[in-house]
Backbone:
């Protein structure tokens, strides 16, 4: 894997010998895009940051909360120094002296390791005139969104900001701020050295597999070829793209390349490249119920469609899964889910029903048999008492 | 007990953020109490409502008293497929509490949690920030025994 190559700080040395403009130019021309799932061109973001004057910040977004994603943890755990080198180069190119790594609360056990790596890299990052601080999150999915993350560091309730202005103009403490993903920043040293292969992508594979884990996959590889290594533990039924990407049936997706285009052409979203392989024995409604629980728990409560809508969806799905389905349940789901998608205030709300929409599209019979109310899949309603 | 003076001093000189003050309080007391927020509000001259609205947002910053050990079982689809549901049922039976409840002796609180990025070693749980993965019933029983 290219991302676990041991750091010798040569990327930083080369970058420091180049004019700042040239560094940005190189990142721009190689076509690196945000690896959090947004696919925003990194060079463009850097370019608009470099234009800003005065104090500015760099934030490394290490808050990968998307269920089924753990590629950033893999980098932080195995090769934190390549990330630090990437941050030092980014800071040099944009003229930044203060940087944060926002580490998610669930990864608190990695904080010491990360801080040690920063200490050990001291001379190098000081050479680039940079100071890096690790801030620990406290268990909120929403903080993976850049403006919520900024609010969180500022000590406010992390509600997503209205855009524009974008963080590159008005970010942390009102100053221009560049927020980049762990994987994105980790590729920077390799790009500067001309060793980066844009066709190799990190995927997190989990679910009903014998060999789950982080895989580096060449662009254009089909799902079937990947699963030959990951080895399904039972006949696969569907692949879910994290919580917010929806799903595709295995039969349809088997021979297609795993890329954003072929996934979105079939109505799902690839996002942060997490594939959760679901076996034949599961009912799609049950998986949707689990994902609905997640969104009910993580909805920030700011806008009504996401807060109330997901709550109602879960209510219906709970009822269906416990054998008390009613005939008009599917009609309710089909009315509510697109409504949440179309009217939620932020991107997280808009994708919160993708799993259900895809589930209804491809595995309708699963929902129909439950709506008849005859079959129970042995699920009792389990709702945690409100905080 | 939390050394509030030190935390406030560190905050005032910009060494730590408000979020880190909350986390430190939660780490030492187990939760962020109203009293602590009140005294923070007075010292920092930040309205109590603003502190409460920030702290109460996060799942890792409970604002009511919790058990000594907070058990958070991952409920992401990857862990679900690997049996997190029966793991929760087992913990409920073993600890004789429901989700979100605390045992009578005040030792354990049981919660469902969002994905903790351990999907390749599912099912997983966090106990006071420590990660346990590839769990099964006998492993959980052993872990609980170690904590009692």
Residues:
């Amino acid at each position: 894997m290219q991302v676990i190559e041991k750091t010798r700080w040569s990327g930083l040395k080369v970058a420091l010998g180049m004019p700042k403009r040239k560094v940005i130019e190189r990142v721009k021309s190689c076509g690196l895009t945000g690896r959090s799932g947004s696919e925003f061109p990194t060079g463009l973001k850097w370019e608009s940051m470099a234009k800003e004057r005065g104090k500015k910040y760099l934030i490394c977004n290490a808050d990968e909360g998307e269920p089924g994603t753990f590629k950033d943890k893999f980098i932080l755990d195995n090769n934190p120094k390549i990330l630090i080198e990437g941050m030092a180069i980014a800071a040099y190119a944009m003229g930044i002296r203060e940087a944060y790594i926002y580490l998610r609360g669930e990864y608190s056990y990695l904080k010491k390791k990360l801080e040690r790596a920063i200490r050990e890299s001291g001379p190098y990052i000081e050479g680039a005139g940079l100071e890096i601080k690790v801030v620990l999150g406290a268990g909120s999915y929403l903080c993976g969104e850049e403006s919520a993350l900024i609010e969180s560091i500022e000590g406010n309730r992390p509600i997503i900001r209205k855009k524009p202005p974008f963080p590159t103009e008005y970010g942390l403490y009102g100053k221009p701020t560049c927020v980049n993903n762990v994987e994105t920043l980790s590729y920077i040293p390799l790009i500067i050295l001309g060793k980066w292969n844009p066709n190799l992508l990190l995927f997190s594979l989990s679910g009903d597999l014998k060999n789950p884990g982080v895989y580096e996959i060449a662009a254009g590889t089909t799902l079937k070829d990947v699963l030959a290594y990951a080895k399904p533990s039972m006949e696969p039924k569907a692949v879910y793209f994290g919580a917010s990407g929806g799903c595709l049936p295995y039969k349809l997706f088997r021979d297609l390349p795993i890329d954003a285009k072929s996934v979105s052409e079939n109505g799902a979203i690839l996002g942060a490249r997490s594939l959760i392989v679901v076996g034949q024995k599961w009912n799609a409604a049950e998986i949707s119920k689990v994902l609905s629980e997640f969104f009910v728990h993580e909805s920030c409560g700011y806008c009504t469609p996401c807060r109330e809508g997901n709550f109602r969806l879960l209510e219906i799905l709970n009822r269906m899964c416990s054998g008390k389905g009613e005939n008009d349940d599917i009609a309710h789901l089909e009315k509510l889910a697109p409504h949440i998608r179309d009217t939620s205030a932020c991107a997280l709300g808009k994708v919160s029903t993708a799993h259900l929409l895809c589930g209804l599209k491809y595995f309708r019979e699963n929902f129909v048999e439950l709506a008849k109310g005859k079959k129970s899949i042995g699920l009792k309603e389990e709702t945690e008492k409100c905080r | 007990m939390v050394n509030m003076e030190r935390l406030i001093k560190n905050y005032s000189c910009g060494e730590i953020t408000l979020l880190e003050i909350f986390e430190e309080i939660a780490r030492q007391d187990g939760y962020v109490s109203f009293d602590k927020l009140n005294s923070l509000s007075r010292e920092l001259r930040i309205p109590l409502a603003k502190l409460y609205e920030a702290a109460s947002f996060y799942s890792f910053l409970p604002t009511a008293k919790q058990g000594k050990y907070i058990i958070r079982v991952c409920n992401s689809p990857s862990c679900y497929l690997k049996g997190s549901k029966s793991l929760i049922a087992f913990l409920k039976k073993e600890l004789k509490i429901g989700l979100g409840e605390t045992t009578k002796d005040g030792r354990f609180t049981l919660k469902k949690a969002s994905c903790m990025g351990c999907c390749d070693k599912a099912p997983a749980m966090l106990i006071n920030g420590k990660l346990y993965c590839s769990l099964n019933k006998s492993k959980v029983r052993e872990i609980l025994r170690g904590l009692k």
User: Anything to note?
Assistant: Residues 4-55 of chain B form one domain. Strands of chain B lie at 69-74, 108-113, 125-127, 130-132.
